[in-house]
Amino acid sequence: MSNSRSSRQITIMALTLAIVASLTFAQSKLAKKSTDAAPPTKAPSKTGTWHTVKKDEFKVELKLSGTFESTQAWPIKIKPHGIAVIKVIEAIEPGAAVNKGDQLITFDTKNLKRAIASAELSDKLARMAIEQAEAELALLEKTVPMDIAATERIYKRAVSDHDRFLKLLFPLSKQAVEFSLKSSQQQLEYYKEELNQLEKMYKEDDLTEETEEIILKRQRAAYERAKFSYKRSLISYETQTKFTLPRSLFDAEEKMKRATLQYNKNKAVLPMTLDQKRIALKKLLQAHEISSEKLKEMKDNLKALDVRAPADGIVYYGKISKGKAVSAALVAPQLKPEASVKAGTTIMTILTPKPNRIRAALSESKLHMLDTGATGYAVPAAFPNLAASVQVASISNLATSTAGHDLTIDIKSGALPRVMPGMSCSITIVGYKKDDAISLPVSAVKRDGATGWYVNVKTTGDKTEKRSVKLGKRSSSRVEILDGLKVGDKVKG
User: Fold this and answer.
1) What CATH topology corresponds to 72-107+308-352?
2) Which residues of 108-124 are buried (b: 16+ CB within 10 A; e: fewer)?
3) How many CB atoms neighbour CB 234 within 10 A?
C-alpha cells in the first residue's frame, strides 16, 4: 500500500515537471518571435551621416523609351489643284511591302478624264481661231493702209467735185434753165411771126393755092408745137428754179457733208479696226494661254492621282513624325473604297523596312546629363533578347513637345532582323563615366548663393568647416567633385 502511494506521488511530480517545462519553452518561443518582429531601433546620431571621400567609378546613366525610325521616308501627299476631295476606288493595305512604281491608290478619275477630252477639243478650236485671226490681221495690215489711202482719194475727189459744182455746174445749170426758157420763148415768137407773115402774104393774093395751104398748115402746126414747148419750158423753168436746182444744191452740200463725215470716220475707224483685230488676237492668245494652263492643270491632276510607290519599302498610313504614324487612325477611314480623301493630306508614307535611327524625348531636368556622342544600347520591346549599340546624334535646343527635348539616336551595330520602323524600345545611355572619380550624394552638396557650391568637412571631433568645391557631372543621386576635396576627407550629409 505504501509502494502504491509512492508510485502515484512520483507520477504526479513527473507530470508537474513536464507542464512546467512546456510552459517555459512556450514563453521562450514567444519572446523570440517578439524580438524578430520588432528589432530594437538605433538611436539617431546626433552628429548626422558622414561620407568618407574616396575615388571610385562614377557613371551618369539614363533610361529612356524610344521609337525605331527609318530616315528614308517618302510621304505620299495628294495635292491636285482645285480639287478638295477625291473618291477612292481601292487602296493598298498598311504594312504591305511595295516595289518602286507599284500602284498605291486607285482614284475615281472618270469625270476628270472627260473634262480633259473636252478641253483638248476646245484647245484645237482655239488654235484654229488664233490661226484665222492671225491671217485676218496680216491681211488687214496690208488692206487698211490701202483703205486709208483710198479714203483720202475719195474725199479729195468729193471736195473737188463739190467745188466744181458750186463754181461751175450749178451756175451753168441755172443759166441753162433760163436760156432754155428764153430759147423756147424766142422760138415761139419766131414761129408766130413766120405764120403771121405767111398768112399776110397769102391773104393779099386773094386766092390760096393748094401748096400754099399746105405750107400754112405746117406753119400753124409748128407754131402750136412752139406754144406747147414754151408752156413746157415755163413749167420746167419753174420746176428747175423752185425745186430741182435748190435740191441739187442741197444734195451737193449734203453729199459733201457725208463725204466729210465718212472721211473723218474712216480716218478714225480704219486704224481702230486694225487695233481691234490686234487686241482680239491678243485676247484669243490670252484665253488660249489660260485654257492651256487649265488643261495642263487637269493633266497634272490626273498624273498626281496616279499614286505609285516612289521607292521600295513598307506602306504606313498617314504621316510619320518622330518615328510614329501619328495620323493613321484619321487617314484609314478615308482610304476605304467609296470613301473620299481630303486634298493636301499625307495619306501614306513609304519607309525602308530596316530602321537606322531611334527617336526619343529627354526631359528638361535631365538635359544636363547627356551630350551628343554618348553611347549605349537599345532593346526592342518586341524582341527583348536582341540589342543594338547606339550613339546620341543630336539633342534639340528647345523642347519640341510636352515630353521634352527631341533626341535622335543612331543605330551603330547589332542585328535587328524583325524590328520595323515604329516599334518601341528601351534605351540605356551612359552620358558620362569615370573610373577614379570623387563623388558625393547630392544631399551632401549645398549651393553657395549664385556663385558656387560647398560641403561641410569634418575637422576635429564633431566640428566641421565650410569648404567650397567645384562640381562636375551629376547623376540622379550623386554629383562629381572636381576640386576642393581629397581622399579621406569626411563630409557631412
Assistant:
1) OB fold (Dihydrolipoamide Acetyltransferase, E2P) (2.40.50)
2) ebeebeebbeebeeeee
3) 13
Q: Which amino acid is at 316?
A: Y
Identify the CA nearest to 361 among candidates 406, 323, 408.
406
> What stretch(es) of the chain map to CATH 1.10.287?
112-303
Residue 74's contacts (CB-CB under 8 Å, 6 or more residues apart) are: 309, 310, 311, 313, 349, 350, 351
Centroid of chain to Cα 339? 23
C-alpha span between 493 and 377 (Å, rounded): 34
> What is the CATH number that goes with domain 49-70+354-493?
2.40.30.170
Beta bridge partners of 313: 98
Asked if residues 17 and 451 have their Cβ atoms less than 8 Å apart, the reply is no
Tell me which DSSP letter residue 471 carries: E
For residues 334 and 244, give the distance between their C-alpha atoms in angstroms, rounded to a whole number: 92
Compute CA 257 distance to the chain's CA centroid, rounded to the nearest angstrom: 63
Asked if 66 contacts 359 with a C-beta cutoff of 8 angstroms, the reply is yes
The SS3 assignment for 473 reads strand
Beta bridge partners of 423: none
Q: What is the mean pLDDT of the chain?
A: 87
Question: Which numeric CATH code is attached to 112-303?
Answer: 1.10.287
Please write the tens of the pLDDT for every residue from 65-98.
999 999 899 999 988 888 888 999 999 999 999 9
Q: Give every CB contact of residue 154 below 8 A, 6+ residues apart in sequence.
A: 259, 262, 263
Mean pLDDT to the nearest integer, 147-168: 95
In angstroms, rounded to a whole number, what is the distance separating the alpha carbons of residues 467 and 150? 116
Domain with CATH 2.40.50.100 in the chain: 72-107+308-352
Cβ contact 294:119 at 8 Å:
yes
* 421 close to 323: Cβ distance less than 8 angstroms: yes
461: left (phi over 0), alpha (psi -120 to 50) or beta: left
- SS3 percent helix, strand, coil of the chain, rounded to 5, is 50, 30, 20
